[in-house]
Amino acid sequence: MNKHEFMEYVQFLGKAFDFTPPTDKNLLAAWYKPFENINLIIAKKMAELYLYNEPGKFQLAKLLKYKNQAMRGLTDKEEKPDCTICGGCGWARIEVYDINYPRPIEVCRRCTCSAGERLNNKYKQLSREDIEDNFLDWDKVFRPKIPFLKEEVN
Ligand SMILES: [Zn+2]
């Protein structure tokens, strides 16, 4: 980011973390140095991660620790597949009948797209039967096809 963007960013940090930003020129220059090569979008993401993860008084050193995580988060987003089943999050939702419950329950399965492939394979993956025996409703949940409803429509 350039110096102008940095000055706005510092003001933003001050508001977000409730402190008075430094006004001393040398101090500001020292603060700017690590941000010189950081994109403003990444820097805002860093602030967001810091805000969610660190309680207490604002420390620049702590904020800088979130640089890698912020950059990783943005790349993940770019790689999100355009999947009609899971919307790119990797989790497909399916309604199943369980003998222990009076009503059908919703469970998650790993999607068959690349986002689902990235999830831990200890989780059950969406099977061909899950897809063929069900229909994907407006809320993107696979629900059992109910025969009498189909007959009514036809
Ligand atoms: Zn998917």
Beginning-to-end CA distance, first to last residue = 61 Å
Annotation field: number of helices: 8
Number of domains: 2
Report the major sheet. 4 strands, mixed
Give the amount of beta strand, in percent.
5-15%
Attached small molecules: zinc ion
Q: What Rg, in angstroms, do the CA atoms define? A: 24 Å
Helix and strand string, N-terminal first?
Answer: HHHHHEEHHEEH
Low-confidence stretches: 147-154
Fraction of helical residues? 40-55%
Subunit organisation of the chains: single chain
Q: Which structural class fits the helix and strand makeup?
A: alpha+beta
* Total strand segments: 4
Q: What characteristic shape results from the CA principal axes?
A: elongated
- Overall mean pLDDT stands at 86
Order of neighbouring strands in the sheet with most strands: 2-1-4-3
Summarize the structure in words.
There is one protein chain. With 154 residues, the chain is of the alpha+beta class. The chain is built from eight helices and four strands, in the order H-H-H-H-H-E-E-H-H-E-E-H. It has two domains: 3-78; 91-153, no CATH class. Helices cover 45% and strands 12% of the residues. Residues 147-154 have low confidence and may be disordered. Bound molecules: zinc ion.
Could you list some keywords that capture this structure?
4-stranded mixed beta sheet, disordered C terminus, 45% helix, 4 strands, alpha+beta, 154 residues, elongated
